[in-house]
Write a structure and sequence with these properties.
Number of domains: 1
Oligomer: single chain
Radius of gyration: 17 Å
Largest sheet: 6 strands, mixed
Order of helices and strands: HEHEHEHHEHEEH
Shape: globular
Strand order of the largest sheet: 1-4-3-2-5-6
Structural class: alpha/beta
CATH superfamily: Glutaredoxin
Helix content: 40-55%
CATH architecture: 3-Layer(aba) Sandwich
CATH class: Alpha Beta
Length: 163
Amino acid sequence: MVKSFYMRLMIVFLYFSGLATAQTVESIRVKDLVEKYRATDGVVVVNFWSTWCKPCVEEIPHFVEITNRYKTQGVQFWMVSQDTEELYRSGQLKNFISKKGWKPTKLYWLNETDADYYCPLIDSSWSGVIPATLVYNKKRKYAQFYESPLTKSELEVAIGKAL
């Protein structure tokens, strides 16, 4: 009985400390994504990427690092995967992110297949090339879109402008 109590107490502790919670990948439609980032306070860095995109995978570690550095200033990092539905549904996408150790603020799988439809909803200039990043600040009515990989310094400058 006592052992069971302590086991439950440990589970509760791990849950609230974040050690036992696995990061989830939420399926999202583009209109819902746009609605969410437009309603979010602070700066939101929305990165569109895919597991097969080498420049995408290469830039994500410094996105995590830089946005964590600015977390106290209200900066969030949202990863939006454009991988296949099969990769998402099978759990391979989640496993890929877990193995990399990435911890974005939010993690989405874009449940859309028509780039001609969803790209202009993010930015009218977006051709569909990834990596692509939107830096958004609702309070300042600031939005800047980048359709190329960003270096650490370029990301810091982008966040600085949004703040």
